[in-house]
Design goal:
The chain is mainly α. The protein has eleven helices and two strands. The chain folds into two domains: about 150 residues, no CATH class; about 40 residues, no CATH class. Helix 2 packs antiparallel against helix 6. It is globular.
Length: about 200
């Protein structure tokens, strides 16, 4: 059973299904360790905006998206921008490095026991560093580690559900003003399987 990282959901699921069957969704873990990185980026970009010339600061455009991508997915231009940012902000370079290492752990197909060992090493490295931005996340990771590590058993996630929820939200915005529930569900049905309905 794949769940978001909320005490009420996780505790209830563990009580009913047992610890070994409860998986804290990777999507929610990623959101939690990206947030402190984003906060540090915002802080550092404000500092650099006042410290650099306008022309030099302009070279650091679109850093939010660049920091969220895997390095191998970056263009040469993006890599140049990232290298420049690393020069100006060693702390952001270090934090980005830890975020990429954690992503790499989740992308690696390994067994649960091996994944826990990798997560433990990551936690030790972060605690030994001078960074404080990940402190809250590390506490959360340690708290939910058994359920997070269950992801590595079969790599289950709630991507489909998250995607469906997003589609429903978009449809609700597009159908603003509809007065009949049936009309909303018809629009949703067409958006979700319209092309397949035409193929029949």
């Amino acid at each position: 059973m794949t769940l978001p990282m909320y005490d009420g959901f996780v505790n209830a699921a563990v009580e009913v299904f047992g610890q070994q069957k409860v998986v804290v969704d990777r999507y929610h873990v990623v959101k939690l360790y990206r947030k402190p990185l984003d906060n540090l980026r915002i802080k550092e970009m404000k500092r650099l905006k006042s410290a650099l010339s306008a022309d030099e600061y302009a070279k650091l455009k679109d850093m939010m998206w660049i920091l969220r991508k895997q390095y191998e997915c970056l263009t040469e231009t993006d890599k140049g921008k990232l290298a420049l940012l690393y020069q100006y902000s060693p702390s952001l370079k270090e934090a980005h490095s830890y975020a990429l290492k954690l992503t790499q752990i989740f992308n690696t197909h390994c067994k649960r026991k091996s994944a826990i060992a990798k997560l433990d090493r990551w936690i030790i490295q972060v605690k030994k560093s001078d960074l404080t931005c990940f402190d809250t996340f590390v506490e959360t990771l340690e708290k939910y580690k058994p359920s997070i590590a269950n992801y590595f058993k079969s790599r289950k996630n709630s991507g489909f559900v998250e995607g469906l929820n997003n589609k429903i939200k978009v449809v609700k915005r597009r159908c603003y003003g509809f007065t009949k529930t049936a009309s909303l569900f018809q629009r949703l049905t067409i958006d979700l399987q319209g092309y397949r309905m035409l193929e029949i």
